[in-house]
Design a protein that fits this description.
Length: 137
């Protein structure tokens, strides 16, 4: 495993990726040179987002960066992974509606808050479920 940051993610990552079918880059948190470099290199991007109104606002900022990256990487495919979902609230459903309005695709699986043994909510059903096979983006 190699560790690069900033612009080195693009320069070194492109060269290192030649010997592999899949390369995963964790670009960390909010806007950074590393995130922008990774988006230029990526074929696919998974953007983790919490299921809240505050997270929806932050997602708007990230999508602006994605749009800039698509100017140079038009084949970039983006999916959203909902995280910190509390299945006892309607926040996930609200976020899914927001994503639809923004013409963004959510992955079919979500990452839920721990607590009370409550399983994860599946985006294809209003019921609370978690057992779903891994799907390709």
């Amino acid at each position: 495993m190699s560790r690069f940051s900033g612009k080195a993610i693009y320069a070194e990552g492109k060269q290192l990726a030649q010997g592999f079918d899949h390369v995963v880059v964790d670009a960390g948190g909010p806007d950074s040179t590393g995130l922008r470099s990774a988006l230029l290199l990526a074929q696919r991007a998974i953007i983790p987002v919490g299921a809240s109104q505050l997270d929806a606002a932050a997602l708007t900022d990230v999508m602006h960066i994605v749009d800039l990256a698509r100017d140079f990487n038009p084949d970039l495919r983006v999916r959203v992974l909902l995280t910190r979902v509390d299945p006892r609230t309607k926040d996930a459903a609200d976020m899914l509606a927001f994503l639809q309005e923004q013409e963004l695709t959510a992955l079919p699986s979500m990452i839920c808050e721990r607590g009370g043994g409550t399983p994860c909510q599946d985006s294809s059903s209003p019921k609370i479920r978690c057992k779903r096979p891994v799907v390709e983006m």
